[in-house]
Specification:
Blueprint: H1 3-23, H2 27-38, H3 45-62, H4 68-91, H5 94-112, H6 122-139, H7 143-149, H8 155-179, H9 185-193, H10 195-204, H11 206-212, H12 217-238
Helix pairs in contact: 1-2, 1-10, 1-11, 2-12, 3-8, 3-9, 3-10, 4-6, 4-8, 5-6, 5-12, 6-7, 7-12
Length: 239
């Protein structure tokens, strides 16, 4: 990566890592549109490289709080969703998908903002994993569907479960992108070059975690999900 591109993309990854370190998701929200604008040829591979790395730090700190049953259901839906996302990368413009998913997330945020919680069961988790697999593989932004299902959980459980989901999901996406010849070596090396910024962002996210764990996690999830959806729509329409 050129130094200017590395500086701008690294700053986006740092900010995204702070958000995800506190809320449980958000790295793709901040970093994916920036990397796309700087160099579309790096997407979605470069973001998936950082997506597979950041969850390891969260898991090292909070892995005991994982909801294993919920994680299993989400991953069950994620597998076919990733395959569809890969087909979209190869054969279909991701812009239409981005607008559709963004609108769906905004509607979901609007509906759930007035509710106490979203039902968290095998059906909703599998469906959220499926949608996340599609948009995560195709655009690098796959957090909102799963996060909305977990919005009523405690902060550590949200972060740990999402970290497990994101690690396995990003690894799966990288394999699928490689299999369909959409993972150039420069995307991988660029993603690796951004990891120091990712680590710095995670280390800086500690105060945000403590603040949100004081009963503010659900509001933060709804806010980040709404911003993520709006960003995805904007990226799809004007990127």
């Amino acid at each position: 990566m050129e130094w200017t591109v590395l500086l701008v993309a690294g700053t986006a990854v740092l900010v995204g890592a702070i958000v995800q370190g506190g809320v449980g998701f958000g790295l793709g929200l901040v970093a994916a549109p920036v990397v796309t604008m700087l160099d579309p040829g790096l997407m979605p591979g470069a973001i998936q490289v950082v997506n597979v790395t950041l969850p390891l730090f969260t898991l090292a700190a909070e892995w005991r709080r994982i909801d294993w049953r919920g994680l299993g259901w989400a991953l069950l839906g994620r597998l076919p969703g990733s395959a569809i996302g890969a087909l979209i990368v190869v054969y279909v413009s991701a812009s239409t998908l981005g607008v559709m998913v963004g609108v769906m997330v905004l509607i979901a945020v609007g509906l759930t903002a007035r509710a106490l919680s979203v039902p968290r069961n095998g059906l909703t988790l599998t469906g959220a994993g499926f949608v996340s697999g599609i948009t995560g593989t195709a655009t690098g932004i796959g957090g909102p569907p799963i996060a909305l299902v977990y919005q009523s959980a405690k902060g550590p459980q949200i972060r740990a479960t999402l970290a497990g989901f994101f690690f396995l999901s990003a690894a799966q996406s990288l394999v699928i992108l490689w299999a369909v010849d959409r993972l150039p070596a420069r995307a991988v090396t660029s993603g690796l070059a951004l990891i120091p910024c990712l680590i710095a962002g995670f280390l800086l996210s500690g105060p945000l975690r403590r603040y949100l764990d004081g009963g503010r996690v659900r509001a933060a999830i709804l806010l980040v999900a709404a911003v993520s959806a709006a960003t995805l729509i904007g990226q799809s329409l004007y990127g």
